[in-house]
Amino acid sequence: MSDKASQRQSDKASQRQSELTEKRVNGGAPAPLAWLRQHGGAVAVIAGLILFPYIFALLSGIPVGQGAAKFWQGQLIVMFIMAVYAMSYDLLLGYTGILSFGHAAFFGGGAYAMALFLTHVAPKVTGDYRIMVGSVNITDFLMVACGFLLALVVAVLLGLLFSAVSSRVKGAYFAMITLAMGQALYILSKATDFVKWTGADEGLHGVPVPVWLNPTQFRLRFYFVALAFMLIMYFVTHRIVNSPTGRVFVAIRENESRVRMIGYNPAVYRSIAFTTAAVIAGLAGALYALWTMSATPTMTAMNLTINALIMSMLGGMGTLIGPMLGAGLMEFLGHFFYQWFGARWPLVFGVLFILLVLFLPYGIVGTWQLRRLEVRQGWKRLLRLLKPEDEARR
Predict the structure, then answer these.
(1) Measured in whole angstroms, how far is the alpha carbon of residue 259 from the centre of its chain?
(2) Are the CB atoms for 224 and 52 separated by under 8 Å?
(3) DSSP 297
(4) For residue range 246-297, what is the model confidence (pLDDT) as tens digits?
(5) In the chain, what percentage of residues exceed pLDDT 90?
(6) What is the CA radius of gyration of the chain?
(7) In the structure, how many helices (H) and strands (E) does the chain have?
(8) Apex CA 113: angle with CA 107 and CA 115, to 5°?
């Protein structure tokens, strides 16, 4: 009996100790409040993005689906899609350390897969069949879902193709090969041999997007679809980079030889990284094809890969949030710079980018993560210096 009593007491003591430790870590706040304190900024941003169309309409006096309110919803939709695209590039370069100049191939491949399916396959299916659930016709919904599935398959195949090359060459040689492969896909998208299917130089325009998701008629609905897509992709990618597989990605970036020595095959994990990044970029491209109702060779061009690199560097590579912030900056700065400087806006943006790289070499988010402890300590020292003065005044 004494042994059981002592065991009970030790269990209670350990439980009390763990509670005290948790309170010390959370500042004495309950678990929900501690979680909210830790993630309050992210919750506020998400809530702001959800409420943005209504707040803008309320402040401007313009209906949600008209005028400037509708225009800024469109700007944010592009930002959401580009944020996912930049995040996929960050998974490849920021976490795995693989420099690729052919990343636009995944984005464009997903866009063409969706556009080709909705243009050449979906009309025949919807014309001959109707799929009902009760009294609801879900045929159009399934066509969009099949388009995303096809984009995923195309992205996986392209990712495996690129990763097969990565097992043979590395570094600058690999970057040049990805550039060549990306350009090959770009030339293929412009080839006149497939003009009947792809539209060649002009691309595919007027893609028949189902009415329920038409971005022109139902802009607000598409806005929430794009926002949900960005959040889901972020949480999925965040889970991947914080998994054991994601830790191996980082280890490959830091020291590939040591990864091989402890028993991991870097080629396998590079393939996983390439395929995962390709899938995320391909799904972003598929949604972009729905937004623009088109698929053009510019979606596979080298410029789009450079944009992903700039967005990642602006926000901070290896942070996930950084490239998303970089996408927002590039989208809105590009819009305002074009209004202010006209066709010369890329020059002004280039100068700003050089200054950011010089003074924030790890990007906005990366530099903040490195120096936030110093900033907090500086604020504490400042408050300590100001506190005696306040007491003396009293």
Answers:
(1) 27
(2) no
(3) G
(4) 999 999 999 888 999 988 988 899 999 999 999 999 999 999 999 999 999 9
(5) 48
(6) 25
(7) 16, 4
(8) 100
What per-residue string of b and e applies to 103-117 under the rule 16 or more CB within 10 Å gives b? Answer: bbbbbbbbbbbbbbb
Q: Contact, 247 vs 264, CB < 8 A?
A: no
**Model pLDDT for residues 95-144, shown as the tens digit of each residue:** 999 899 999 999 999 999 999 999 999 988 888 888 888 888 888 999 99
Report helix, strand or coil for 130.
coil
| Beta pairing class for 132-133 and 204-205 | unpaired
CA distances 196 to 44, 201, 303, Å, are 48, 12, 26
DSSP 27-68: TT--HHHHHHHHHHHHHHHHHHHHHHHHHHHHHHT--TTSHH
Give the up-direction half-sphere exposure of residue 95: CA atoms within 13 A in the CB hemisphere: 31
Give the span between the Cα atoms of 63 and 77, in whole angstroms. Answer: 18
Domain residues of the chain, as ranges? 72-359, 362-394
CB count within 10 Å of CB 226 equals 26
The per-residue DSSP string of 306-365 comes to: HHHHHHHHHH-TT-SHHHHHHHHHHHHHHHHHHHHHGGGHHHHHHHHHHHHHHH-TTHHH
Q: Concatenated DSSP letters for 357-384? A: HHH-TTHHHHHHHHHHHHHHHHHHHHHH
Task: Determine the pLDDT at residue 360.
Answer: 84
For residue 80, give every residue at least 6 positions away whose Cβ sits within 8 Å of its Cβ, in sequence order, or none: 226, 227, 229, 230
pLDDT tens digits, 135-191: 888 889 999 999 999 999 999 999 999 888 767 777 788 888 899 999 999 999 998
Q: What is the DSSP letter of 91?
A: I
Q: For residue 111, what are the CA distances in angstroms to 115, 140, 144? A: 6, 18, 12
Give dist(CA 46, CA 321) in Å, integer: 13
